[in-house]
Design a protein that fits this description.
262 residues; mainly beta; nine-stranded antiparallel β-sheet; 19 strands
């Protein structure tokens, strides 16, 4: 009985997208912190990500596969989440620690400071793609349906069913110099982490918390509903809070709004 009810729920979700004539939008607000270390000094990374996706029939995203299935008498069902818009904000960090710049006969002859920093910065657009799953467990049972959201994918899906490959690499101007950065990462307006030690300086492309080594999995809210969840990645020392609204409105309810006290 439980399996029949869950199957019916998934069926209604698909039908609401395909036959209602109205688009269904997913609005995410995701805030994450990650503990890290620089020269044994602990610090915390903090980023916020906003994204709006829209439900698209899987057959529209994969028309060739759908055609093959239907030609063999099957039905190619399912729902994808296509990208509409996305933005991110990064909170600035500065970490300093004493170092020895020159060793002497009796120990350190010249001390100094090692410093790592990046500034507050915005990134827009940033990309994500998602899909709805039925969550089958075993041979004769079925769990609750869920969604999966992937950040900075190699390709993302547009609402018209077109797939777009990210790239080529992004060219940026910083400090009078031009540099090519990887577009598979979030590229902030201030795209670097800066390092200095004993008068020597260097920079590297900032590596966002939301780079593609992880994704978000969660329960599907009812249409017009709201979800507030905690998401923990212990292996990455990450804690995330996300809110999700599923609605017919394309307007993101908290677009680029920063919360100081989460």
């Amino acid at each position: 009985m439980r399996k029949t009810v869950l199957l019916f729920i998934v069926f209604l979700m698909v039908c609401s997208t395909l036959f209602s004539g109205r688009k269904v939008y997913w609005h995410f607000d995701i805030w994450c912190t990650k503990d890290a270390h620089y020269r044994n000094v602990k610090y915390t990374m903090e980023e916020t990500f906003w994204v709006t996706l829209v439900e698209v029939a899987q057959k529209d995203a994969y028309p060739e596969i759908a055609s093959m299935v239907e030609n063999r008498g099957g039905r190619f069902e399912g729902v994808m989440l296509a990208f509409v818009k996305g933005a991110a904000f990064r909170k600035g960090v500065t970490v300093e620690t004493p170092v020895c710049c020159k060793e002497g006969f009796m120990g350190c002859a010249r001390s100094g400071i090692a410093r790592m920093s990046w500034s507050d910065s915005w990134a827009e657009p940033v990309y994500a793609v998602g899909q709805l799953y039925s969550n089958k467990r075993g041979r004769n049972s079925m769990g609750a349906p869920f969604f999966r959201l992937r950040f900075t994918p190699r390709k993302y899906l547009k609402p018209n069913g077109e797939w777009v490959t990210l790239g080529p690499p992004v060219s940026v101007e910083a400090g009078g110099e031009s540099e090519v950065l990887s577009s598979s990462k979030f590229v902030y307006n201030s795209p670097y982490t800066y390092y200095s030690k004993c008068g020597k300086e260097k920079r590297k492309q900032y590596k966002s918390i939301f780079n593609r080594y992880w994704n978000l999995k969660g329960r599907i809210p009812r249409l017009g509903g709201f979800v507030l969840e905690q998401y923990v990645l212990r292996s990455k020392n990450m804690l995330c809070l996300y809110s999700l609204t599923r609605t017919h409105s394309p307007r993101h309810p908290s677009w680029k709004k920063l919360e100081d006290n989460r």
